[in-house]
Amino acid sequence: xxxxxxxxxxxxxxxxxxxxxxxxxxxxxxxxxxxxxxxxxxxxxxxxxxxxxxxxxxxxxxxxxxxxxxxxxxxxxxxxxxxxxxxxxxxxxxxxxxxxxxxxxxxxxxxxxxxxxxxxxxxxxxxxxxxxxxxxxxxxxxxxxxxxxxxxxxxxxxxxxxxxxxxxxxxxxxxxxxxxxxxxxxxxxxxxxxxxxxxxxxxxxxxxxxxxxxxxxxxxxxxxxxxxxxxxxxxxxxxxxxxxxxxxxxxxxxxxxxxxxxxxxxxxxxxxxxxxxxxxxxxxxxxxxxxxxxxxxxxxxxxxxxxxxxxxxxxxxxxxxxxxxxxxxxxxxxxxxxxxxxxxxxxxxxxxxxxxxxxxxxxxx
Amino acid sequence: xxxxxxxxxxxxxxxxxxxxxxxxxxxxxxxxxxxxxxxxxxxxxxxxxxxxxxxxxxxxxxxxxxxxxxxxxxxxxxxxxxxxxxxxxxxxxxxxxxxxxxxxxxxxxxxxxxxxxxxxxxxxxxxxxxxxxxxxxxxxxxxxxxxxxxxxxxxxxxxxxxxxxxxxxxxxxxxxxxxxxxxxxxxxxxxxxxxxxxxxxxxxxxxxxxxxxxxxxxxxxxxxxxxxxxxxxxxxxxxxxxxxxxxxxxxxxxxxxxxxxxxxxxxxxxxxxxxxxxxxxxxxxxxxxxxxxxxxxxxxxxxxxxxxxxxxxxxxxxxxxxxxxxxxxxxxxxxxxxxxxxxxxxxxxxxxxxxxxxxxxxxxxxxxxxxxxxxxxxxxxxxxxxxxxxx
Lengths: 365, 391
Known about the structure:
The complex is a heterodimer.
Chain A: H1 9-26, H2 35-59, H3 65-73, H4 75-107, H5 114-131, H6 133-158, H7 176-189, H8 192-199, H9 209-235, H10 239-242, H11 246-252, E1 255-256, E2 260-261, H12 265-294, H13 303-316, H14 322-364
Antiparallel strand pairs in A: 1-2
Helix pairs in contact in A: 1-6, 1-8, 1-9, 1-12, 2-7, 2-9, 2-14, 3-4, 4-5, 4-12, 4-13, 4-14, 5-12, 5-13, 6-9, 6-12, 7-14, 9-11
Chain B: H1 2-19, E1 32-42, E2 47-54, H2 56-61, E3 71-78, H3 81-87, E4 95-97, E5 103-107, H4 108-113, H5 116-124, E6 133-138, H6 142-146, H7 156-165, H8 167-170, H9 178-186, E7 193-201, E8 213-216, E9 220-224, E10 227-232, H10 234-244, E11 251-255, E12 262-279, E13 282-298, H11 307-336, H12 343-350, H13 352-358, H14 362-368, E14 370-381
Parallel strand pairs in B: 1-4, 1-5, 5-6, 6-7, 13-14
Antiparallel strand pairs in B: 1-2, 2-3, 7-8, 7-9, 9-10, 11-12, 12-13
């Protein structure tokens, strides 16, 4: 049922890369001047955090995480864990939509009510989820290179006004421990490994799956680095700490000979497309994982109830409040991610090896 | 069933098409009051803001008739800046549109009390741009200076913008925007130096009895954090520009050695290197400036064809720059005790451990630091003439 749709490795790389970069374009925590170093150091932590899920995905290359968890941990426990992943996908869709609203509304649509922004965004994403994985992946293949090109273009246009002397020597303001803990937190923000674990059975040429995800990590880090370094060099080390959207403020300053100016509409287009891809994908994965866990035959019937649920959560809870949304993004997301990226997979891996060892012992006996 | 499905799709398409005729936040041009400048003075409730609003029909005619001003002014009071913005529509029929504002003008009185409270709204609001010119009005109110158009441009905001941008020609002023101010304010080891405008009487030419005014951009405003502490005049501001490497053009005039005349050298290129040395409690500020230029005017009879003479002039030129720089550094150190140059940032980069103990009283330490200025001027051209005009 889930494996009818096939996508290529390049589509997976582009889809997962834009899934993270679209968030960095909207929001990034500029805690200190060493954030650019932490982005590089996080490349060391990403493989460590992702290792359990990558290993399991390799062992069960034809199954999604919600399909192989019941095989490893047993039917009941597997259903519970699978349901947790459904909730996780819904939560990611909800918080990302809230973040999107919190950035878009004050900048572009201050008079548009929240419900209108959320409704229109959800309708578009529901359409994406309805059309399926192939459609979302093809869209990512078309739009991701364009969005990445926009990031490079912005950096090049503003390079004349960047002051790279603002960067202090490494360890001038932070310790080895601080840099590493920030890098670890950065790595924990990359929940795309869970999305990857759901997409593995749909990849048409599996080859070296680790390499597919390493490419995702490299693209995410490289373009995050361009965004971070250009923002810091353009705005200085301290102004980015004061605002939710320093990258947008940085882009607003672009003025090349008073000729190329006011080109921030490109980033607004990038936000819209990036968030459409990310939220469509998470809604798609929420419905498909629910269908797999609870044996629903047609996942498409779940789309409308899912978006109604997200719509109600957005409007009836405090998640749309900027203070709440940014607090979740800043403090809670890494811990929540860690539970799903590392916590559950490590338990599953332990059970997997335990079962394997006891099976081997039984065979010997 | 198929007919029902088609009917549903057609209804949906029609419904969506209807919603595409305009956006929720649409603002038609004829409903907007496009702001060119914002002036901030102290008012009854706290803040009095003055807005220069452009009249599109007047600017498009372009007759240059100054009796028909292409702008109108609105004033409003408020306890906060945004409150004064929102008080305008009570007496003005259009919604203020600030995205195209070219500058924010603050009176000296407001600036001396501290500006950061007023900048929060600029940083927070979605319409305002941090690249707007940030200007302090010296010796008068912002509203008074805003209405002056002493040049050719009939729109005051364009006049102000063009005037401020002239700093590249003379180097005796600075062009700062709001982002520059915020960057210096938030950073430790540097304080803001801001553009100054002063309303001055225009020199009378011919038989015009009417008193006319113009704006002068010469000089700069020295801040300690967000509070205005004083001003630098034109040559002092150029002294600042020499130090931070922002001199791009201008003329250095100095007495011609061994004569009673003067030599003027046009600056082609100037570079500077700032450094700080910390030895225990001793802090030494080091500035090295290199300049090359062309003799633009010589009022004596000296032989400009002789390389030895050129060398003497180069030394005199270097000395003139050195005096200008040393005077500025000493004034800023002793009188204002505010490191507007950013020497503190160099200490932060060079001595990160010592900086932790110095950062909180850096401005005090800066004021006691010794100065070492090294200048080198090269005269690479003598203009179109070989010999001076005077015989």
